[in-house]
Amino acid sequence: MGQKVPNLPALTDDCSRCAALCCVAYPFEEDEDFAILKDVDTPCPNLSDTCFDCTIHASLKSRGFGGCIAYSCAGAGQRVTQELFDGETWRDDPDLLTHMTHALRVLRPIHEALAILLEAQKLPLPPEVQMELTAKITALCPDDPKSIWAFEDAQVQDALADVPTFVRSLAPYVA
Fold it and tell me: What top-level branch of life does the organism fall under (predicted)?
């Protein structure tokens, strides 16, 4: 099992601590995953006007929103809302909208990569590969995780770009 990594975030969704960033940040293409066309950085019309709840959550599949069901931010949404923006939301301050959605689009791939790398720690890896794995996880967890710039840093982005190649190199250790 891998070493403990400082600044390792929660990698599971907690929508109650988020500002519905996924319902705003990403565009929808009108197809089998989304019943409507929606632009980037635009709130979904199914988002409640008074809170950050989906007004059709109970019937997403039957209403043509399978993409919403399949989506996971791997904890990036609540991290953006609670840590990077101290609990403020784009509804509190509309000027925050594009900053928060940009932060989600930067953090989500990092969180997804961390989730994959943490799963890889369960593999029977030789010590040198385990050390490399721990180094990659550490590189994706910057020392000052309170600023989006920490995640846009070249070291973090280079580590993120290297994850697919590194994960493919683990194939011989998968039973």
Answer: Bacteria
Contact criterion met (CB below 8 Å) for 27 and 41: no
Q: How far apart are CA 108 and CA 11, in angstroms?
A: 10
Contact at 8 Å (CB) between 131 and 48?
Answer: no
* Whole-number Å distance between alpha carbons of 57 and 114: 28
Kindly report the pTM of this predicted structure: 0.92
Residues 6+ apart with CB under 8 A from 138: 5, 6
Do residues 102 and 31 lie in contact, with contact meaning Cβ atoms separated by under 8 Å?
Answer: no
The Cα 153–Cα 94 span in angstroms is 26
CA dist 172 and 82 (Å) reads 39
